[in-house]
Amino acid sequence: MSEPYTTSKRPPYGIIAILLAGAFVSILNSTLLNVALPSMMTDLEVGPTTIQWLATGYMLVNGILIPTTAYLIQKFSVRHLFITAMLLFTIGTFAASTADSFALLLTGRMIQASGSAVMMPLLMNVLLTSFPIEKRGGAMGILGLVMIFAPAVGPTLSGWIVEHYHWRTLFYMILPFALIVLVLAFFKLKDTKEKVQLKMDVLSLIFSSIGFGSLLYGFSSAGDKGWGDPIVYSTLIVGTISLILFILRQFKLESPFLDFRVYQYPMFALSSAISIVLNMAMFSAMILMPIYLQQLRGISPLDSGLLMLPGAIIMGIMSPITGKLFDKYGARTLAVIGLIITVITTYYFSKLSLTTSYSTLLVMYSVRMLGMSMVMMPVMTNGLNQLPARLNPHGTAMNSTLSQVSGAIGSAILVTVMTSRTKNHAEELMNTAMSKLTEQQSAEVLEGLQNKVMVDATINGINDSFFVSVLIAGLALVLAFFIKRVTQEAPSKSV
């Protein structure tokens, strides 16, 4: 299909380095804006629902385009695909940096997303075809560093920038790096590719876009609007029907748009199940911790980010190490140990209070990240190792798509649990407190009591949500015991 990246000769480290740099910049960019949204809201004079589209729109474009990457990787060369993706990302970054209105800023973000959607599946496919199975762990460990470290360090970096500079600096900072990667790709990526007669199935594209787009929007809206909102359940129904039609159509096509036959391979199916469950559990800390730290404890965004930074550094250090350990011992041992650590630390997070010290939170969060660093990439790599080379693009596209969807589902479930349990706790605590009040006590005392009750109820709601995460992570732990080491011939020597 393309100029070979052989598994017998020296892997193309220069090409991989360029792809890694592009992936790092795009993933870092996707996590930078969350802390800056309040400043943007004030500056652009829009409300919370409107400004949230900067995150929602980015996610939707990713969710719609990522399933197409299996087709794109087979159809086009690494050089053409990566340069096009990086060019789109750079144009989007420039448009966002100069935006003087919300509409232009949103347009820039969505153009960015159209480029970044291709980066990770493309990089994973190059790694799979560049290294033999017995050396893939180390290679995928480096990829894990990018996947984990970039989003983990993003909030800290963003918090510091927003505290000291204008929010546009977030885009000014990304733009030169994007340009450098684009120039390097133009001059250094030299692969050629034979012409592939692969026809785009328009109906599959329509079903895929409506299906994944609607599901992502429905689940991401559920936490805010509630499951009973007509927009939420209607988009979920439309998404489910479209996704079923999409899957059925793939089995009828000679060259599927996204080949669901990857699930005929048991270790890939198991790795997908574990990744989905773990992704859902992982979002508990990402969503609940900022609420607890900033809204309830009054800790600044920068200090909140700094609390999470040691965990990001640990994951960055551990990723290549975990990759080497995977090559030596396989995925099951690492996954079981990592998930035990994750379950225990998540349980401790379900016992938060207003007096939990900053140092305790920092240590617990860092140890939790240590556990997760031992699970995600080894499990994913073990599953991909079982696929034949022709299914590599479909496997990587499937993993990236499910990561988006499971993250949205996890967020929706955990926010829903927190909201509903907070309401229940507030009613219980208020009834108890009111029974102890006398008629002579002033309205001032009553108002203070209501504020205290809401704080206590919210903490209890967050704790309940963390406990649900414990159960979800526990399910992943059970599944991890069924992992078997995959032994298979090395894939074909092309991308």
TrEMBL record:
<feature type="transmembrane region" description="Helical">
    <location>
        <begin position="80"/>
        <end position="99"/>
    </location>
</feature>
<feature type="transmembrane region" description="Helical">
    <location>
        <begin position="12"/>
        <end position="33"/>
    </location>
</feature>
<keyword id="KW-1133">Transmembrane helix</keyword>
<feature type="transmembrane region" description="Helical">
    <location>
        <begin position="466"/>
        <end position="483"/>
    </location>
</feature>
<feature type="domain" description="Major facilitator superfamily (MFS) profile">
    <location>
        <begin position="15"/>
        <end position="488"/>
    </location>
</feature>
<feature type="transmembrane region" description="Helical">
    <location>
        <begin position="231"/>
        <end position="248"/>
    </location>
</feature>
<feature type="transmembrane region" description="Helical">
    <location>
        <begin position="201"/>
        <end position="219"/>
    </location>
</feature>
<feature type="transmembrane region" description="Helical">
    <location>
        <begin position="169"/>
        <end position="189"/>
    </location>
</feature>
<feature type="transmembrane region" description="Helical">
    <location>
        <begin position="111"/>
        <end position="131"/>
    </location>
</feature>
<comment type="similarity">
    <text>Belongs to the major facilitator superfamily. EmrB family.</text>
</comment>
<keyword id="KW-1003">Cell membrane</keyword>
<feature type="transmembrane region" description="Helical">
    <location>
        <begin position="401"/>
        <end position="420"/>
    </location>
</feature>
<feature type="transmembrane region" description="Helical">
    <location>
        <begin position="305"/>
        <end position="326"/>
    </location>
</feature>
<feature type="transmembrane region" description="Helical">
    <location>
        <begin position="53"/>
        <end position="73"/>
    </location>
</feature>
<feature type="transmembrane region" description="Helical">
    <location>
        <begin position="333"/>
        <end position="350"/>
    </location>
</feature>
<dbReference type="InterPro" id="IPR020846">
    <property type="entry name" value="MFS_dom"/>
</dbReference>
<keyword id="KW-0813">Transport</keyword>
<dbReference type="Pfam" id="PF07690">
    <property type="entry name" value="MFS_1"/>
</dbReference>
<feature type="transmembrane region" description="Helical">
    <location>
        <begin position="362"/>
        <end position="380"/>
    </location>
</feature>
<keyword id="KW-0812">Transmembrane</keyword>
<keyword id="KW-0472">Membrane</keyword>
<dbReference type="InterPro" id="IPR011701">
    <property type="entry name" value="MFS"/>
</dbReference>
<dbReference type="InterPro" id="IPR036259">
    <property type="entry name" value="MFS_trans_sf"/>
</dbReference>
<dbReference type="InterPro" id="IPR004638">
    <property type="entry name" value="EmrB-like"/>
</dbReference>
<feature type="transmembrane region" description="Helical">
    <location>
        <begin position="138"/>
        <end position="157"/>
    </location>
</feature>
<feature type="transmembrane region" description="Helical">
    <location>
        <begin position="268"/>
        <end position="293"/>
    </location>
</feature>
<protein>
    <submittedName>
        <fullName>EmrB/QacA subfamily drug resistance transporter</fullName>
    </submittedName>
</protein>
